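I am writing to request your help with a piece of structural work I have in hand. I am sending you one protein, given as its amino acid sequence and as whole-number tokens for its backbone shapes. Kindly check, if you would, that the fold set down in the tokens agrees with what the sequence suggests. You will find the record immediately after this paragraph:
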Amino acid sequence: MIDVREPAEHAEFNIGGQLMPLGELMDYAQDIPADKPVVVYCHHGVRSVIAIQRLELKFGMTNLINLMGGTHAWEMTIH
């Protein structure tokens, strides 16, 4: 799992994903596995969609899955 939120957001609440902020994501692209499904998430699901689009366009990745609703939706299901 990849968390594309900012470090402060990740520190406040996270679901275990590796932090790769959207603004720095392309610097981490070589660390993203291309041979298995990878869930990408943010707070509401908007930045993760942008992240997936960028990675698909630039690197041709086809294994990325958006966590719809992001950590907000995740948190709502556990409370």
Observations:
- Residues 73 and 79 are 10 Å apart (CA to CA).
- The beta strands are 2-3, 18-19, 38-41, 64-66.
- The chain has four helices and four strands.
